[in-house]
Specification:
alpha/beta, Rossmann fold, 3 helices, 5 strands
Length: 122
């Protein structure tokens, strides 16, 4: 289980294979939300920020935005045309020792289940 501070967070999530069926918009002609995604977003605090990343080209952005809105998946920023390679997050560590970056790798097209708790003492 991940343990986070009570500070507001920035969530950076990939779209395909993480939130929706990988390449479903190409294979099926539409996106399919993966299990656990709605519940995950329902529990995000309002003060947290959400950044979504996708390798999809800009031409697919309007349909993706509509799908996200229809499914109550909020995002503050949506970045398209991202490279298909690794995504590397680099951040500093607070002087108190609090790690300010985490990475979670989940199996493609499996349920989104990030097990975490908030520790008000961090």
């Amino acid at each position: 289980m991940l343990e986070f501070s009570s500070l507001s967070k920035t969530w950076i999530l990939d779209v395909d294979g993480t939130l929706v069926k990988h390449n479903g918009y190409k294979i099926d002609g539409y996106d399919t939300l993966l299990d656990g995604v709605k519940e995950f977003f329902e529990h995000l605090p309002a003060d947290d920020k959400v950044i979504l990343l996708t390798a999809r080209k800009d031409e697919f952005l309007p349909a993706l935005k509509t799908f996200l809105k229809e499914n109550s998946i909020r995002c503050d920023y949506l970045l398209t045309d991202m490279p298909m390679g690794e995504r590397i997050l680099v951040n500093d560590r607070k002087p108190s020792g609090l790690d300010m970056a985490f990475a979670v790798n989940k199996d493609r097209d499996k349920a989104l289940n990030i097990d975490y708790k908030i520790n008000g003492e961090l």
